[in-house]
Amino acid sequence: MTSSWTNAVADDNASGPVIRRRPLRDSGEMDITPMIDITFLLLIFFLVASTTASQTGVELPKARYGKGVDSGNSTIITVAARRGPGPARVYLGDGTSGTPLADDPDLQHQQIAEAVREGFRQGKANVLVKAERSVAHHDVATVSTAAAEVEGIKLHLAVLEKE
What we know:
The protein is α/β, with parallel strands linked by helices. The protein is 36% helix and 15% strand.
């Protein structure tokens, strides 16, 4: 008997109402949220993983305007590049005509300071240091330091470029 009863329960389940499922319809819209998430993750990854090219040189634009300095009211010192080894040549005056100052740094320092003092006594409150483009900054700084020993002067720097 038990076996016939189990068969009857099984028959009832098999012949029960059939539930039809609705077919799945494609809505036609795509959810792009995961794609946006991946895009932002890739963007963050590349920002963090990339290196900047900070070692490259920066090309600065050429200066077109500058403050003019009256040459009649200035002590002019010209710094010219040497065509061989050694420090730059320093001339007291406008241009490279004449004899350059000695290569000895201490003697050169004294000669520049004395020339600036003499110019200041004559009413020349400006000191104009003209340097060729290829002169090292160290050489210009040495001349500027010697000229700046005299108090009350205004120091101006200029770069000589060949056209």
